[in-house]
Amino acid sequence: MSVQMDALGLAATTARSFDCPVLRHACSLHFQERPRNWATLGFRFGFGNERASGLAAISRKQVKIEQSFTRKTVCQAASTAPNVATAAETQTKSPVLPFRVGHGFDLHRLEPGFPLIIGGVNIPHDRGCEAHSDGDVLLHCVVDAILGALSLPDIGQLFPDNDPKWRGAPSSIFVKEAVKLMHEAGYELGNVDATLILQRPKLSPHKEVIRDNLCALLGADPSVINIKAKTHEKVDSLGENRSIAAHTVVLLIKK
């Protein structure tokens, strides 16, 4: 007790710093209460008015010092905040990849009364694709593959089938837009590998024409465009000539 009172007396008379939490805790131990201010703390330890007032003055000085320190700390934190934000933005920036790979898939029902258009070429058949646009499964999945490689929304989001302006639209429009986005992102086509799945008709007589048209739309050399056609062994709607599907993989290379 005497040591604690001596500490208070020293602080009150010499105006030197002291351990405020320790003295508050000492008072709470001996008087079962925590003083609301330093003058009350002084009176609790039996100081007279002069020494208690001196203690209160010291506490006010300390509060000012603490407030000044707090303002300085806040200002320093505020001054460094933009740097922190810049670092966070740098960490979330998309990496520049030397190449990108995308996959596309499309499927449409085959119904009488519609043209069968594949790769922008009208293929003679007794039925064609029922779709909002021209239903070209090959061009649709090529577009989706390019968009996928660029991590962009798919063809249905960019050209929604509930928008009247795309009704009956040639799919070449979608390909040109995808190629434009590819170049804007700083990439060029590496190669395309496409697989068409349908039971009928046979596409062998038309593959070269389809590839040439696809090369023209993509601005690509025929050596980087490959088109395969498979039947579905008479299994499910594809094998029963009730639908047609296509898969495409594209490689994009950084310019």
The end-to-end span amounts to 81 Å
H-E order = HHHHEEEEHHHEHEHE
Helix content: 40-55%
- Report Rg: 39 Å
Shape: globular
Describe the biggest sheet?
A: 5 strands, mixed
Number of separate strands: 7
Query: Overall mean pLDDT score?
Result: 78
Provide the β-strand percentage band: 15-25%
Q: By helix and strand content, what is the structural category?
A: alpha+beta
Parts with pLDDT < 50 across at least 5 consecutive residues: 1-19, 84-88
State the helix count: 9
Task: Give the neighbour order of strands across the main sheet.
Answer: 4-1-7-5-6
Describe the structure.
This protein is of the alpha+beta class. The chain is built from nine helices and seven strands. A five-stranded mixed beta sheet has the order 4-1-7-5-6. Strands 2-3 form a two-stranded antiparallel sheet. Strand 5 (187-197), helix 8 and strand 6 form a beta-alpha-beta unit. Helix 1 packs across helix 4, helix 3 packs across helix 4 (49-92) and helix 5 runs parallel beside helix 7. The longest helix has 44 residues, at 49-92. The chain starts with a helix and ends with a strand. Mean pLDDT is 78; it is low at 1-19 and 84-88.
